[in-house]
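Q: What does the assembly look like in three dimensions?
Context provided by user:
Components: two
Sequences:
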Amino acid sequence: MASLGHVTPQSMHFAEPLRLRSGAQLADYTLVYETYGTLNADKSNAVLVCHALNASHHVAGTYEGVPKSEGWWDNLVGPGKPLDTDRFFVIGINNPGSCFGSTGPMHANPATGKPYGADFPVVTVEDWVQAQALLLDRLGIRTLAAVMGGSLGGMQALSWSLQFPERVRHCIAIATAPNLSAQNIAFNEVARRAIVTDPDFHGGHYYEHGVVPKRGLRVARMIGHITYLSDDAMAEKFGRSLRAAELAYSTQEIEFQIESYLRYQGDKFSEYFDANTYLLITRALDYFDPARDHGGDLSRAMARARAKFLVVSFTTDWRFSPARSREIVKALLDNRRDVSYAEIDAPHGHDAFLLEDARYHAVVRAYYERIAREIEEGRDDE
Amino acid sequence: MASLGHVTPQSMHFAEPLRLRSGAQLADYTLVYETYGTLNADKSNAVLVCHALNASHHVAGTYEGVPKSEGWWDNLVGPGKPLDTDRFFVIGINNPGSCFGSTGPMHANPATGKPYGADFPVVTVEDWVQAQALLLDRLGIRTLAAVMGGSLGGMQALSWSLQFPERVRHCIAIATAPNLSAQNIAFNEVARRAIVTDPDFHGGHYYEHGVVPKRGLRVARMIGHITYLSDDAMAEKFGRSLRAAELAYSTQEIEFQIESYLRYQGDKFSEYFDANTYLLITRALDYFDPARDHGGDLSRAMARARAKFLVVSFTTDWRFSPARSREIVKALLDNRRDVSYAEIDAPHGHDAFLLEDARYHAVVRAYYERIAREIEEGRDDE
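A: Here is the predicted structure of the complete assembly.
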């Protein structure tokens, strides 16, 4: 299927401070974003795609002259694809605190002139949604045909439906959860400890020391990868395959293919990802919990939502299992909301939301066709 | 129930080298062990209890003058307990490579006079079983009424039934697996990378630098703890409980109780456990795979076994799930071996094998009563 072709990121500067959940604020800041397709005359076909931990505003298409620069959801977003850019105007925004262009820990703190580092304020899912809404205001987009995201992106989609119920017609939440379990938090905490206790972390001010806590980032990423893949997918892909014909009997050399894979993933990640961003984003995951302000009652929390929902989960996802998606569905049904739910039998674990799976993509395609019909019908009414 | 009371470790020196699977050998070495109960006249009531990753020869009882010094399986082993020391002579042996008294990486390498460190030879489950057998030879014990272990200890029990089929009457393998899955190896590898990349590791020769790679050990232990507990047990015990009444909005301070628990476990472990031992023992886990020499066919591998078996698994154990125990049971049944299998519905995950659970202990008790009857009947025959 045709890709979007070359796309170009844009940036927008905000001089007004962003007031954060923590009580702190982000002085002035810049958001980097991309758009694909054309906003229609009545601005009714805008879809916001929210990114997860290590992704960005670069959702689809490629960068001219950069090989292998496909966006992270290029298989889902483009002309003729499930989210069809011939019909929808798609927006991807890099969240503040990230390390892909929007203001983050590696940028200068206006208060000191030095990089924020560990002084970058803690940001939450709600803060990101707030920032995204301000950018949409500037684009003149009042109402979203849909907000969509997977994993942490799905949390942002859910949060949109609660923070701005009147601005969201459809919320598509994929492979996500209404909050992290103790086990989810535990994995995040181990990853953070690996980073923070790396001597090259320097209390989060490593930029000034000309180093990067790569050891910690590698371990963090290796832990992450284990939770993204299903046990079965790992068994299928690597099993107990050895790298060499014979055992080397070594505690430090690579013996098994799975070790080689994890080390490679860790090394690659530590070359491009920022350690402070890793801390910030895992914390945003930990904090997300819309039921918290309602005594832990998700149904009461979701009562504010006005959107129609598509919730998708994957059978082998043990990071955010189908049971967690069903909690969201139940809370919506308790409020008599319009909700479609698909539990996709896929072997890939949490990673499935990024992969091309025929049944999964068919569900998303059908849902966007429904949205497109509603837009058409809405236009006919006028 | 009464405990064994005070127990005393003993040690035995071996001047003959231990030939290892890797082709290397351990020059001369010492094994530390404990025994409880009395060996009967025909030496038919001996039970060997094999230890897992961070345990030792100190299976039951306490050390005089040392508070909280109960052995790691004190709830299961003692007078009147499921493994009744009034009827059985129980032996616990610290495996070579461990850090609780038997020759290990912190002891002097006779070739250099300096601590072995990373030069301690790689040891396998089979090597440990070999060493245990040599110690039993010296105690004059030819045949074991039973060999029992949980987790990595269960692998040793299985290995006994294959290496010395004629010396084992009963094999009790609890919460174990016929080999590690790719996911199991992946967790081990992340833990090892955390240790090896700690700057205080010094290539495994940290003793000479007067430091310990505590950062890596902490992270390794935190990862381990996540895999020992079930998701449900963590949710039950910690959930999303906060340490303080209000969120601190910090990436590095403790917010959630689960973080506090994991950090505490990591800190405690890093105070007493040896990093080189951690590498060695996780590698022994990775390598264990009796089917490997039989083209991956576990049934063919288990054909050598002559013992009767009790296999026990726990429903919420996701480290070594019931499915892995069922593989062992199937391989035994394929060979028409006498095997009892209990799948205990317990909420605690892998840790369940160390905990006091009425149904689990009843199964083990009943099985030892059967063994005791067989010993009685054998004696009557003579």
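Follow-up: The mean pLDDT of chain A is 96.
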